[in-house]
Design a protein that fits this description.
globular; 16 strands; 20% strand; 40% helix; four-stranded parallel sheet; alpha/beta; five-stranded parallel sheet; Rossmann fold
């Protein structure tokens, strides 16, 4: 018989306490700038939290599951984190189609999950329609409806108001995100901004030759091309420049969201403008955000050399998730954690003015412009002046000299919107 003394019992207890940890699971691509932005933002947040004592005295560790930006692999990745690693919390850098694929697993396993990149409004609709099973889910990027709504303002103020353009042809990838943005643009760009959609051209994400598509776009007689590209975006960008397509092109181009864009296109990226959640390339930073970037760049030397917006979302969002868990007594009681997560609200100021806000819409809170609710979605402001939160997005443009800046909203602009030199 083994005799357990008070001293040995204390040692066992201490050893158990020392082994206690909070396990975070990362789900996303481990080889894309998008995925790595979320992963690294989370890593820095965990390091800082652990240095300050962890969560309720427990150290935080992270395990990863690679989705390869493939929906089937995304489902496997979520199952691995839930069943094999038995994580307490999941932070996602997944693209929309992948998040949609693993969403039923999230509803089944009921693991608190934060999406930092996916912006599909249909997921927020799921929160509205099924708050019980969607309680663990939060999206701390403005949903695509909010992104498109502010982009429509850009259409009215700049594309129609300054440039005088009255018609567009949509060139969109065949994805859930592409479908959502296309629908929002066609439904609102005409009535609100006075810009008519002449045709919608869909393409496969693996398309390598865009010449026939650009020719088709020109044949529509539209004033400009509205592109929607989240996968292999550098291809459509560089071909647009190399072919000297005689039409302006704006829209959504994920490839243009990183500082590597110019190198990726071989310098053939001038003139491309895209909407971007904030912070974006060319976006002025508040002191807290700049400190995060300084830490990031001192720690990582490989691409992405600056985190995409979702890296900031991961950095702040993971800290908020842990703060909510501390108050809720951990992640085990999902309803308690979800209730505390809704209360998280971080306001960052620049020169005494609200610059960024990391908070969430209330369940029954109606956004006045769209007239709908956005439960568990990042708080945003769609009206100038932006006093309640930052705008849901900004429009950035790459110039032909390789520089990049914000062109809209005007309060955040660092440069002016221009058309490429070859477009007459």
């Amino acid at each position: 018989m083994i005799k357990v003394t008070a001293t040995s019992a204390l040692a066992i207890i201490c050893a158990t306490m020392a082994a206690a940890e909070v396990k975070v699971g990362f789900i996303g691509s481990l080889s894309s700038d998008t995925g790595l932005s979320t992963l690294r933002g989370a890593e820095i947040a965990i390091e800082e939290l652990n240095a300050a004592g962890g969560m309720n005295g427990e150290q935080i560790v992270m395990v990863t599951a690679d989705t390869s930006e493939d929906p089937t692999e995304g489902v496997k990745a979520y199952e691995y984190l839930a069943e094999t690693e038995e994580v307490d919390f999941i932070i996602s850098g997944s693209i929309d189609d992948v998040s949609l694929a693993w969403m039923p697993r999230m509803q089944e396993f009921q693991i608190p999950t934060l999406d930092t990149w996916t912006s599909y409004i249909g997921i927020i609709d799921m929160v509205v329609e099924d708050p019980e099973t969607m309680a663990p889910y939060f999206m701390n990027i403005a949903s695509d409806e909010a992104l498109a709504t502010l982009y429509i303002n850009f259409g009215a103020d700049v594309l129609k108001g300054q440039m005088g353009w009255e018609s567009t042809v949509i060139l969109a990838e065949d994805t859930a995100f592409g479908e959502a943005i296309t629908g929002l643009i066609t439904d609102a760009l005409g009535p609100v901004a006075g810009i008519k959609t002449t045709e919608i051209i869909k393409y496969d994400v693996n398309t390598v030759d865009f010449a026939p598509l650009f020719s088709r776009a020109q044949e529509t007689g539209a004033d400009f091309i509205y592109q929607v590209s989240t996968v292999n975006s550098q291809v459509v960008s560089s071909q647009y420049v190399k072919l000297q397509v005689p039409m302006p092109m704006t829209g959504v181009n994920v490839g243009a969201l990183g500082l590597e864009y110019w190198e990726d296109t071989g310098g053939a990226g001038g003139g491309i403008s895209t909407l971007s959640p904030v912070p974006s390339v060319g976006f002025e930073l508040d002191p807290v955000s700049q400190s995060f970037v300084d830490t990031y760049q001192a720690k990582y030397t490989s691409r992405p050399v600056m985190p995409h917006f979702n890296g900031f979302n991961a950095y702040h969002g993971l800290k908020q998730a842990m703060a909510a868990a501390e108050t809720a007594g951990g992640f085990g009681d999902v309803k308690a954690w979800s209730a505390e997560m809704k209360k998280q609200d971080l306001v960052l100021e620049k020169d005494g003015k609200l610059w960024l806000r990391y908070g969430f819409w209330g369940d029954d809170e109606v956004e006045e412009v769209t007239g709908r609710t956005y439960p568990h979605n990042a708080r945003f402001d769609l009206t100038s002046p932006y006093e309640d939160a930052q705008p849901s997005m900004v429009v950035v443009q790459w110039k032909e000299d390789g520089s990049v800046g914000v062109v809209y909203p005007f309060e955040y602009a660092t440069t002016e919107f221009t058309i490429p030199s070859w477009v007459k």
